[in-house]
């Protein structure tokens, strides 16, 4: 869409000066010295010529209901120009300082460990989740944020092919607690307009501009410059007041916000299923009533760990299995993540069973710790389901048919590619179930 006017800055700029807006038929360029003026003329192009610092700069204008520059959106061209005055002045007069302001941040000095720094691998499940944890760290509480990934469990891998499977078997003897990770999580930054003066919580410098002065983490509330957000460590500690729901929430965000190893949906549903549903025919294959499944979803979103999913509320176990499957389907990043997906599919295509097993094990090491732990717990549960297959008629293959598309989604939403991958998804999940004790 073409804009209905073009704007010309004249006579230089000072952020403290007023500016005039007059029809172009009245304004004679340079008529009044020292006062920036704006020309409003019929549109001839999507261009904003700007005379600034004795240099003419041309900026392309964009409009889609609001005027916008990058991620900034303005109600009027006047707001765009005013914000442009401030931005141009600051970036011109303080360019060297802006380039250096991330070098010596206060954020790192008060106890945060950067993602690339060395430090002892911490134990304990998940990150501290209560309100304002990162603010507590800013007051001096030191914290190690380096994640303990599944790859850290493979220190004793042997290089010879004959020893690979035996190394896998040795890892299967690790206790549950040794899989516990201090989950690393990147901040979920969104462009934000701050009301009143604000200072960056990474570099402690002023956040300039009229709107969209910086970014705010939607999960923990950290406020920083956009350029500072690129170097902030992956140490987000989600605050429950920012995490409003359980379903459709990023898995790592959820477990860190609630200070858990796994999402409570996974733990509570599996516990309920194993108490009263392992012998139920068609477990996970038979669907429960969609309205009741939606009720369970709303109960978790509303009540969290206090949600009542007992037999008194939902006597049909298929409602609980449906709610668990829905949780995995609704994850914004699948349990088997987009980054790891190609490696799993590639491994499933290997004809030799031992090579396939080793390939899937290598793919598991690509999963984020929270995803790895949740997958491990789910596969152990599904393995227990298969122990009752004579009664529930759910073999590892049947469960894999159900859970393949639920846990795995290709990065590219190509219908043909998705259809071609279905059999490999099934083979991945079937292998994970059958070899759960070895792979995890």
Automatic annotation (TrEMBL):
Keywords: GTPase activation, Membrane, Metal-binding, Zinc, Zinc-finger. It is a peripheral membrane protein. It comes from the Eukaryota. Its main location: membrane. Residues 186-236 form the Phorbol-ester/DAG-type domain. One of its GO terms (cellular component) is membrane. It is found in: Membrane. One of its GO terms (molecular function) is zinc ion binding. One of its GO terms (biological process) is signal transduction. Residues 249-440 form the Rho-GAP domain. PANTHER family: CHIMERIN FAMILY MEMBER, RHO GTPASE ACTIVATING PROTEIN AT 5A, ISOFORM A. This is Beta-chimaerin. It comes from Petromyzon marinus (Sea lamprey). The gene is LOC116938515.
């Amino acid at each position: 869409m073409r804009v209905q006017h073009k704007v010309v800055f004249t006579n230089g700029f000072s952020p403290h000066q007023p500016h005039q807006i007059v029809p172009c038929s009245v304004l004679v360029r340079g008529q009044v010295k020292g006062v920036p003026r704006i020309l409003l003329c019929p549109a001839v192009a999507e261009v904003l010529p700007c005379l600034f610092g004795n240099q003419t700069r041309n900026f392309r204008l964009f409009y889609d209901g609001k005027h916008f520059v990058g991620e900034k959106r303005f109600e009027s061209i006047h707001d765009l120009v005013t914000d442009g005055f401030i931005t141009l002045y600051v970036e011109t007069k303080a360019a060297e300082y802006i380039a250096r302001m991330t070098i010596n941040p206060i954020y790192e000095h008060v106890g945060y460990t950067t993602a690339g720094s060395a430090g002892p691998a911490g134990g304990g499940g998940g990150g501290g989740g209560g309100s304002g944890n990162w603010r507590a760290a800013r007051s001096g509480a030191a914290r190690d944020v380096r994640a303990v990934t599944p790859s850290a469990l493979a220190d004793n891998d042997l290089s010879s092919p004959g020893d690979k499977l035996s190394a896998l078997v040795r890892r299967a003897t690790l206790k549950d607690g040794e899989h516990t990770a201090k989950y690393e999580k990147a901040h979920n930054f969104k462009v934000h307009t701050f009301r009143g003066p604000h200072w960056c919580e990474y570099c402690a410098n002023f956040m300039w501009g009229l709107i969209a002065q910086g970014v705010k983490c939607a999960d923990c509330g950290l406020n920083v410059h956009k350029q500072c957000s690129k170097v902030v460590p992956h140490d987000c500690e989600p605050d429950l007041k920012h995490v409003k729901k359980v379903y459709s929430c990023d898995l790592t965000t959820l477990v860190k916000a609630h200070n858990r190893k796994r999402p409570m949906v996974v733990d509570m549903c599996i516990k309920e299923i194993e108490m009263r549903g392992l012998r139920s025919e068609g477990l996970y294959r038979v669907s429960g009533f969609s309205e009741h499944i939606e009720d369970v979803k709303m109960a978790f979103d509303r009540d969290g760990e206090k949600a009542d999913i007992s037999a008194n509320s939902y006597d049909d176990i298929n409602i609980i299995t449906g709610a668990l499957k829905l949780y995995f389907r609704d994850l914004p990043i699948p349990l088997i993540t987009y980054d790891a997906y190609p490696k799993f599919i590639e491994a499933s295509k290997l004809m030799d069973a031992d090579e396939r097993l080793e390939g899937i094990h290598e793919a598991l090491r690509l999963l984020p710790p929270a995803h790895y732990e949740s997958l491990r717990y789910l596969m152990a549960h599904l393995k227990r389901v298969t122990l009752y297959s004579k009664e529930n008629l759910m073999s590892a293959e049947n469960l894999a048919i159900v859970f393949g598309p639920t846990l795995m989604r290709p990065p590219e939403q190509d219908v043909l590619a998705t259809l071609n991958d279905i059999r490999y998804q099934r083979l991945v999940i079937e292998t994970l179930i059958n070899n759960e004790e070895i792979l995890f």
